[in-house]
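Long-time lurker, first post. I've been practising inverse folding by hand and with some scripts of my own, and I keep getting stuck on stretches where the structure tokens seem ambiguous. Below is the full token string for one chain I'm working on. Before anyone asks, I'm not after the true native sequence, just a reasonable design that respects the backbone. If someone could post their per-position residues I'd love to compare against what I wrote down in my notebook.
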């Protein structure tokens, strides 16, 4: 009796694992249309294998029992490789996603293999992990930065020799710092178990910097407590050391939120990926002069496209809309920024 009970328990455990497998919820229509015999279909269903993902090796592409076995073996191998801490970028543990197949490109013409740098490899892994774990949504907005840009140009014209160069990004940092204090949920991180938010009382902002070695994100601390000129001087120093690979690891950690600016290059919109465990990232592209209706006539205004990507587990659409509306008002009123 005890032997039967143990056997039954083991069978229930296996059945539970199959029921919870990534491919257990199969589309009956796909199974019926698959080019496979009834026995192979039954075998695949018992193992939780999706015939729609299997390429047949039999006659006229027929799926064989061996094809199903190979599919299960490859899937489990990929899951185990990532689960053991391997740096596999093309697969993800527990999600049943197959890797992109290896292709011999030399069959098509001359090729050259260029090894990815250390920074590129680290970035690839972090971005891939964020993409697979975070349900991300991007909210697009425009802000009128006409007055801000006029003030920035005035500062540049009146600057004394040796004074730091004030860029538009400096004002964007100040505006974001104010918003993070006004909307604490955006200055938070979700606990690994998803049960609570860690609200940060500090305001540290990361700035994505494009360098020859790859993208790095130096973190500017206590932005809410610093003035425009202090931030401009710090930004010049950080950017220089980032390009020279002289940033310390501690200087690239602890951001409340990150800004990714493509304004100096171009573009009208993009979808930046959240730098987890942060819950949002602000993207900025090139500002353009546009006709804006002021109630009686069209006037030329310098409009800056803004893109907020956020973790939908923490932030909903209404939160994002309110945050960006307030941000657009903040960056448009130069009096607020310089207070």
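-- Answer (accepted) --
I ran through it position by position. Result:
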């Amino acid at each position: 009796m005890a032997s039967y009970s143990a056997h039954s328990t083991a069978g229930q455990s296996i059945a539970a694992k199959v029921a919870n497998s990534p491919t257990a919820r199969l589309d009956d229509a796909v199974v019926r249309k698959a080019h496979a015999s009834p026995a192979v279909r039954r075998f695949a269903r018992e193992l939780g294998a999706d015939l729609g993902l299997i390429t047949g090796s039999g006659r006229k592409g027929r799926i064989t029992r061996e094809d199903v076995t190979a599919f299960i073996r490859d899937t489990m191998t990929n899951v185990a490789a990532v689960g053991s801490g391997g740096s596999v970028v093309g697969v993800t543990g527990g999600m049943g996603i197959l890797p992109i197949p290896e292709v011999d490109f030399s069959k098509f013409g001359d090729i050259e293999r260029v090894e990815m740098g250390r920074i590129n490899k680290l970035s690839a892994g972090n971005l891939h992990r964020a993409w697979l774990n975070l349900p991300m949504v991007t909210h697009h907005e425009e802000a009128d930065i006409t007055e801000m840009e006029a003030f920035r140009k005035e500062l540049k014209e009146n600057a004394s020799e040796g004074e730091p160069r004030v860029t538009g990004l400096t004002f964007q940092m100040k505006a974001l710092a104010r918003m993070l204090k006004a909307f604490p949920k955006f200055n938070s991180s979700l606990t690994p178990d998803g049960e609570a938010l860690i609200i940060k009382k500090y305001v540290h902002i990361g700035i994505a910097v494009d360098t020859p070695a790859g993208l790095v994100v130096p973190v500017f601390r206590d932005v809410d407590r610093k003035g425009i000129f202090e931030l401009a001087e710090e930004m010049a120093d950080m950017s220089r050391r980032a390009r020279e690979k002289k940033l310390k690891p501690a200087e690239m950690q602890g951001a409340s939120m990150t800004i990714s600016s493509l304004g100096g290059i171009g573009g009208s919109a993009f979808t930046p990926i959240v730098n987890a465990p942060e819950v949002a990232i602000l993207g900025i592209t090139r500002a353009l002069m546009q006709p804006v209706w002021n109630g009686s006539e069209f006037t030329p205004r310098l409009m800056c496209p803004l893109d907020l990507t956020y973790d939908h587990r923490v932030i909903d659409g209404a939160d994002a809309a309110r945050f960006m509306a307030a941000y657009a008002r903040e960056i448009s009123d130069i009096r607020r920024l310089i207070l």
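A couple of notes from the structure itself: Residues 41 and 279 are 43 Å apart (CA to CA). The first strand starts at residue 136 and ends at 144. Happy to go over any region you disagree with.
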